[in-house]
Structures are given as C-alpha cells and as structure tokens.
Automatic annotation (TrEMBL):
One of its GO terms (biological process) is lactate catabolic process. The keyword Flavoprotein applies. Belongs to the FAD-binding oxidoreductase/transferase type 4 family. Keywords: FAD, Flavoprotein, Iron, Iron-sulfur, Metal-binding, Oxidoreductase, Transit peptide. Residues 35-263 form the FAD-binding PCMH-type domain. It comes from the Bacteria. Its EC number is 1.1.2.4. This is D-lactate dehydrogenase (cytochrome).
Length: 939
C-alpha cells in the first residue's frame, strides 16, 4: 500500500518532498522522545493544500499518518512506522494584528521567532516551553505546551482565538468563518452530533461534571481536553479546543490565531537557594500571592548538571547535599512597579529558610544566562547520564497545597528503585514537576524495575496526591496505558468516543494518547549507543536544528548524529541496507555539512556536530590526498598567485561571452569534473591585486594587518571592479585613522590553515596555523601591537588556537575599539543590509555589527530568517545547493530601498550577493564611506 501511495503522491507533490530512502526515514523519524519507530514513508507538506491532498489519499487508502513539526516532543507523539507528514519550511507564514494583541500563525513558525516579532509591539504568545526557540507552533498547540508561563491561564488552550483544521478526510473547518462553519455542519453533521451527545452525557452526570472541573484546577494534558465540553456550548468551539493537546490524533491544525499577552519591558529574576526540596515547595503559596512570572525549581542533581556553565554563581559547586534552587522572575511596565514587586516577594518569603539572602539580578547578562541554563536543563541533565543509558523524562502535576509532601515522596520513590542520579526540576507555580530517569535496559531486571516504578508513580500521583500524570509534555505513548487509571473508565470511554467521532478509521497518529496495549510505554525504546566522543552526550532533542544551513537540504545536526549512531552500531535491517546508509551519508551527512559550529550555540551542552564531521573527513583522507595537501601548503604563495590569475582570466572570458553561456559552460565543467572545478556564478570575483606592504606612514599608533589568503586571492566582483580591493581599502582606512601598518614577513605564504582543516587535512592545517602564529608573534612584538585580520572566520580560528598574548581582532571589534574615536562618522542616508557570519556569531558580535553599521547608515536591516549562509569555505562553489538552501528567505527579507549589504567574510559575501540581488562587501567599505579623519582626536 505504501508503494501505491507514493506513486499517487508523486502526482500531487514535488518528488523532492517524498522520502523513501532508509537514511531519510531514519533521520526524519527521530524526535526528542525516548522511543524509536522508523516510518515507511516521509512526506513534507508546505501548505494547507498539500495537507488536504495527502490526507485525502491516506484516508481513502486507510493508511495511518503521523504529523511532525519540530520534533521536540518528549513522549513519543511524533514518531511513526507508517507515514510521517513533516511540516515543511514554507509552512511558516504569520500576520500580526491589533498592534500585537493578536497573531495569526501557520504551524511551521517557531515559537521563539513569533515572540521575536511580537516583541516589537510589547507582546508575546502565552505558551513558554523551554524548547520555544526550536519548537514550532503546530507542536506547541498540539501538545498544549505551557512551560514557565502560568499553565492554566496562559497556555495554548486559554489563548487560542480561532483555528483552521484539516480533518482526516481532507475537509477544512475554519472556526473564524461563518460560511465554513455552515458548510461543516452540513458535511460533518455526524461529528457534531457525537460531540453534542458527549457533552449532554457529561452535563447530565454531576459526578462526571465535578470530576472534570476538579481535574483542570491544575495543569493536565493527560488524555483529551475534556474541559472543552464544560467551557463551551457550541460544538465548533468544543472541536477547536479539543484539538489543543490532541497530539495530531484528531486532525491537523493548518493555521491558528493567538490572543497574545503583554511582555513587560522591565524584568528581573533571582536564584533562591533553599536547604531542601521540601522547603522549596513551601514557597508556592506565598509566591502565588505575588506578581511572579515564573518560579522554576531545580534540585541538587540539576544544579550539578549545569554548575560548570559560564556565568553561573561559583557557589553552586559548594552547595550542601539536598540543596534546591528556585529561579523566580517578576516583570512590570515600569522600574518603580518592578521595585515594589521585588519587595513584595522578599516580604512574602520572609518565613522561608534560604541559604543566602534574596538578591535580584540587576543586569541582563545574568538574567539571560540563568534563563538559558534553565531552558536547556533537560538536555544538560541528560548529558550527565552514564554512557549508553536511556533517557526517560516524566512530567507530573500536584495541587499546590500537596506539593510540600509530594516532592519528597517522588524523590523517595526514585531512590527506592535505584534512580539516585535522577534529576528533578519544574514549574513550581503550577506544581508541575519534571524528572529524568537514566535506566540501563541492557542490564538484567532494569525493565521490570522501571515497570514497577511506573505503577507506583501512577498510584502516588493519582490516588495519594490527586494530581495529573501529564502537565504539559502530552500523553504520548509513555502515559497512554495509564489514561484510564487517572480519569476512570467512564470518562475514558468518552475520550474513545471523541477519537472515533473525529477519526473513525483510527489512522491519525494511532497508538498515541489512546492505546489498549498496557505495555506500549516500554516498547520501541530508542537506543542511545556510544558512537563518537563529541556526540555521545546528545539525546537528540533537536534544539540544534533551527540554525543549521542544511536543514532543508539534507540532514540536520540531530539527524546526522542519529544516522551516525545507527551506522556505527549496525542498526539496520541487513548488510545491504547498512551499506546504502554509509553511501548516502557521504553526501547527506558529510559533504553537505557546513561545519560552521552554530549547532553548538543552540545546544545546551555545546555539541558541535561539525567537529565530528571534520574528524570523519580526517580519517577518510588517503595518503595521496595528504601528500597533495602538503604540497599545496608548502607552495601556498605560488598557488594563491595562480588563483588570482585564473580569476582574472575567467573575468576576461565573461566580458567576451554572455552570462547564460558562462553559466551553461561552468555547469558542464563542474559536472564533468565531479564537482572539483568550482561552479561559476555571476558574482565570481576578479583576482585581487598584490598586497602592497611598502606604502605606509610613520606613527606611534601601530597595527599589524594580516590580509587573509582569501582576500589576497579574491578581489571585488565584476560590478565594482574599479573600486579598491579590500586590502587596499583597509590600508587607506587605517592610514586615515593615523595608524602605521605593519605586515608579517612572507605574507603571501601565510594562512590560518582553516581551508585545510575543514577538508580533513588536520596536520597541514595545524602547520599553517603555527607558521602564521610565529609570524604574528614576531611582527607584533609578542603581542604588544594589535592584530587585524580582515576575515572573521579566519580570525575566529586564530583566536581559538593561537597564543593568548596576541591581541587578535576582526573588522567589527577592531573598528569599534581602535578606529571609532579616530574617525568622524557621518550617517549615510541609505538602507543597508548586514550579515553576521557564523564566526562573528560565535564571538558574540551580532549586535556590535548592527551597532557599527548604524554609525554609518540611517537604516540597518539584519535579516531574522537568515542565519549561516552555507557557503562554508568553498562549498558555495562545489556544492551551491547548500548556499541556495541556507539563503532561501534572504531575497524576501531585502526591501526595495536597500542599496547594499555588508559582512566580514569575502566568500560569504559572494553567496549573499548571489541570492539577495545586492552587492555585499566587507563592513570596512561602509566604514570608509561614512568616515573622515578625526583631526581633533588624532592631534
């Protein structure tokens, strides 16, 4: 049936959106949860229209489907052994209305991006899951995620205004459109009758009515949202709110509108340290009486998992056993109001025993660090697990007045079952507690031990403390067998009626939320075997994916890791399949990886998948290839000189031949050579002029200038070939500021080695790096003179690996630190684009790039959807699809009024120019254009 479906799908979808290769099914079938199923087919949907076509086919053929957004779900909601429908990159439109008070979103918009747009109006969406920067709106709503926000007030359920729903048969219901509702009431009268009958059954039973009311006094996402039947009378409204938290089992949400909440401009937080978790639980009642935005609990093991994070208090390492922390946030519209709220919190907690005095942070750096650590706590804690063990996260909620007794009981239960290294954290305001278990199911008796633990946990939460088994992570597979226990048989039967009414054939995410298999929660556990030291701590959470330039082309960092683990541990059906996996990984895993390291910034434990790929490249190099690399390294000056002449020759040829002919010829040569000959493009630079190291002035202010090898080879593109090349312009700019320029000896043979290292020639890269380091130390008088390198990527490598005595700068920081006061800036009346390279981002220079550009131009635009450009050294020449994919949204982000673009990497600038329609150059060109010599400062 799957083969027939694939054939039919090819008639309605582009072939590139249909995946049946094992590598793609394995990779895309991976989510953040602790279960593993491999879909038989993966289909990417980029619009509501495509969802309709897919569902019409699967419904008619009785084929099960599962929806996946970002795959950050933790309970097994977004995995399938049938057909997986993935939200594609184009399903991400949004519209802000009512000056920020409302936002309309497609399901592919990431929550963090939505908040970034709303922040301009002083608003944010209500849900605030820790994964918000990675999670997509479709998944946030489908799981009724809430996170640190007050979960029974500002969750998805309570802030949704309307939605468009694609039903299992492809019918669309728009709850904001009267005509759509009228048509739906005709076409789906049976569904509406079922909903009405379920409501009447509840209303007629005081016992059911009371139980449902009581269950939603605290956070509860176990089963379907039965409160919908109490909160609404109209069946369409009930349907819309049943969709929230339904985990893709009732239909597909193709668009929704949120009523947003105010995002106060004044915020502060405090890390409270308490002697034990019981004392922490005592704070819930007084904190609920204050204006508190969040109160995040972290037990001693959680604190151990993050104690090495830069910016956290050193005292974390010395806290006594059992100590617990609370991250408490309060926000207001004014500083005066914020002060009153802080004082109120301190007063309300006067009877609470804290290990240290309560002291709110007064700077954004600490505030951001604390919250970044808290949001990444799950991943950080999971990274501490013993090698090869499973990661299981549970999510329970207790009434506030029972928390003081419940939290110690949970910890005692974990200790009884040998989970002494478990980690506990959560949202204290809601009584919502998460804990992480790390069982080794390879050891005898561990599976039975876990089953016994779960049964006792269910009893403790439901019977002893009248809590809920799921507060926000969704029921998924791991709590599906216990839904009936929490709700009772009568309400569980009503939930089954809900499922049957929406999905009579049971093809929407079957096995999730409603499951008759009492053992499903211990089946298909995802293995996390050892594979490589760089990636062994990864739990495949997916936080890394949003910054990856190849995410829409081949694989993401999470997927590279998942597939590599499978290959390393022979996780395939047979030897043929394993061989195919290795073959496919060469392109999808290795060649198309930009190795830019941005994934490490998003990863709470700093896993740089690109480093692993570089290690693999190094091991794959033949002796002949290494000899060739060594020859190139030893004859670098001659090779760069040849490259300059070749570029000038190609430029002359382009002046003789039309662009289409050049493109066709370039493509032919590129293919014939097996991609070894760089692919020509219209922004191919001309050769750079020889660096003139003789032109100088005498001055007490000195700078050591190292023009990178790229800028010694690549000049401007043909559109501005008459302008000075970057090395010439930098000379002029430095001299304008009154600097005497010093150059290292033998400049033409010097290179930071990155070009070799990124291709797997580690030794040759190290040799070139140390050669350059020695030259810079000599020329800078052992670090007395600052060093300027005109390429951020090269500078980043130098800064990471070279002697710390060297004062190393790229153009942004050097201009702000050394040129700003020596030059007089005049804002040019123009709109410019800026692009922060991966290396600039890793050095924390994004804001400084914007700040520098704003000194020079009246309007500066830093694209919000465009990250790494994917040029990745020379991949823009030999794998242009990576650059095209990475810059997919750039053209749309360039307004018609923009006149130029600026960055700090010549190769990145080629790709940016190619895909933006603007000419991108070094930021130093803009600085030179906007400045004159500051005679007062210099004199």
């Amino acid at each position: 049936m799957i083969k027939k479906l694939k054939i039919k799908l090819q008639d309605v979808l582009p072939p590139k959106q249909i995946y049946d290769q094992y590598i793609d099914r394995l990779a895309k079938g991976t989510d953040a949860g602790f279960y593993r199923l491999i879909p038989q087919l993966v289909v990417v949907a980029n619009s509501e229209e495509e969802i309709i076509k897919i569902l019409e086919l699967t419904h008619s053929m009785n084929i099960p489907v599962t929806f996946k957004a970002a795959g950050t779900s933790l309970s097994g909601q977004t995995i399938s052994d049938a057909v997986l429908i993935e939200i594609g990159p184009d399903f991400n439109k949004y519209k802000i209305e009512k000056e920020g008070a409302k936002i309309v979103l497609q399901p592919g918009v990431r929550g963090g991006f939505a908040n970034l747009q709303l922040a301009k109006y002083g608003y944010k969406i209500g849900p605030s899951p820790a994964s918000i920067n990675a999670a997509k709106i479709g998944g946030i709503v489908a799981n009724n995620a809430s996170g640190a926000s007050y979960g029974i007030v500002t969750n998805s359920y309570n802030t949704i205004q309307s939605m468009r729903i694609v039903m299992v048969d492809g019918t669309v219901l728009d709850t904001a459109c009267d005509e759509s509702k009228r048509e739906f009431k005709t076409s789906h009268a049976h569904l509406l009758r079922e909903i009405a009958e379920i409501k009447q059954q509840i209303v007629r039973s005081p016992q059911l009515l009371e139980k449902i009311k009581h269950k939603y006094l605290i956070k509860n996402t176990t089963g379907y949202g039965m409160n919908s039947f109490l909160d609404f009378d109209d069946s369409v409204d009930i349907i819309a709110h049943l969709m929230v938290g339904s985990e893709g089992t009732l239909g597909f949400i193709s668009e929704l509108s949120f009523n947003t909440i105010k995002d106060n401009s004044e915020k502060t937080c405090v890390l409270l340290f308490l002697p034990d978790i019981k004392e922490a639980a005592k704070t819930i009642i007084p904190l609920r009486q204050c204006k508190v935005s969040a109160a995040e609990l972290m037990d001693r093991n959680a604190l151990r998992a993050v104690e090495e994070v830069e910016g956290l208090p050193a005292l974390l390492k010395d806290l006594p056993q059992g100590a617990t922390a609370l991250l408490v946030e309060t926000s207001a519209e004014s500083k005066a109001q914020l002060l009153l709220q802080k004082q109120e919190i301190i007063e309300k907690l006067v009877d609470i025993h804290t290990l240290f005095p309560i002291s709110f942070t007064d700077n954004a750096r600490d505030y951001n660090t604390y919250w970044k650590v808290r949001k990444g706590l799950f991943t950080s804690a999971a990274a501490t697990r013993p090698n090869g063990t499973t990661c299981i996260i549970e999510d329970v909620t207790f009434p506030g007045d029972r928390l003081e007794e419940a939290l110690p009981a949970i910890q005692q239960l974990m200790e009884e079952h040998g989970y002494k290294d478990s980690v506990t954290w959560g949202h204290l305001l809601d009584g919502n507690i998460h804990f992480l278990l790390m069982p080794d199911f390879e050891k005898q008796g561990q599976l039975q031990n876990y089953k016994a633990f779960m049964n006792k946990l269910v009893y403790l939460v439901v019977d002893r403390f009248n809590g809920s088994l799921k507060g926000e992570h969704g029921t998924g597979r791991n709590m599906a067998p216990f839904v009936e226990y929490e709700w009772g048989s009568e309400i569980y039967e009503l939930m089954k009626k809900v499922k049957a009414a929406f999905d009579p054939k049971n093809i929407l995410n079957p096995g999730v939320l409603i499951n008759d298999d009492p053992e499903v929660y211990v089946k298909n556990i995802k293995p996390l075997p050892l594979a490589h030291p760089i990636i062994d701590t990864c739990i495949e959470c997916g936080f890394c994916e949003s910054s990856c330039p190849s995410q829409n082309l081949t694989l993401t960092p999470r997927q590279r890791i998942a597939v590599f683990r499978a290959m390393t541990n022979n996780q395939a059906i047979d030897s043929r399949q394993l061989k195919e996996l290795h073959k496919a990984y060469r392109y999808k895993g290795d060649e198309s990886c930009a190795t830019d390291g941005l994934c490490a910034l998003n990863c709470p434990v700093g896993i740089d998948t690109g480093k692993m790929i570089k290690e693999l490249r190094f091991k794959q190099k033949t002796k002949f290839a290494r000899r060739m690399a060594g020859f190139m390294a030893n004859h670098f000056a001659q090779l760069t000189n040849i490259a300059r002449h070749v570029l000038n020759g190609v430029h002359v040829l382009h002046r003789l031949l039309p662009t289409p002919v050049m493109q066709a010829g370039g493509m032919a040569l590129h293919k014939i050579s097996g991609r070894s000959i760089p692919l020509w493009n219209r922004n191919m630079p001309i050769g750079a002029p020889q660096v003139n190291t003789g032109s100088n002035l005498e001055s007490p202010d000195k700078v050591l200038y190292f023009p990178s090898c790229i800028n010694r080879m690549f000049g401007n593109d043909s559109s501005n070939r008459e302008e000075a090349a970057l090395s010439q312009l930098t000379q002029q700019l430095l001299q304008k500021a009154g600097y005497q320029i010093i150059y290292p000896d033998n400049i033409n043979k010097l290179c930071c080695g990155m070009a070799f290292d990124s291709k797997g020639f580690k030794r040759e890269g190290e040799n070139k790096l140390h050669e350059l380091e020695k030259a810079l130390l000599t020329a800078s008088q052992k670090g007395d003179i600052p060093v300027l390198c005109d390429m951020s990527p090269c500078l980043y490598r130098m800064k990471e690996r070279m002697d710390k005595k060297l004062k190393l700068y790229e153009p942004i920081a050097f201009t702000l630190d050394y040129l700003k006061d020596k030059l007089a800036f005049t804002q040019q009346n123009e709109t410019v684009m800026v692009h922060s390279t991966c290396s600039s981002t890793k050095m924390g220079l994004n804001d400084k790039l914007v700040q520098l550009a704003q000194l020079c131009a009246t309007e500066v635009i830093n694209p919000e959807k465009t990250g790494c450009c994917g040029w990745a050294g020379d991949k823009g020449f030999n794998l242009p699809a990576l650059n095209t994919s990475a810059l997919k949204y750039l053209k749309d982000e360039v307004p018609a009024r923009a006149v130029a673009g600026y960055s700090t990497s010549r190769t990145c600038e080629i790709g940016l120019s190619l895909h933006s329609g603007l000419n991108y150059q070094s930021i130093l060109f803009l600085v030179d254009k906007a400045t004159v010599r500051n005679e007062i400062e210099i004199n």
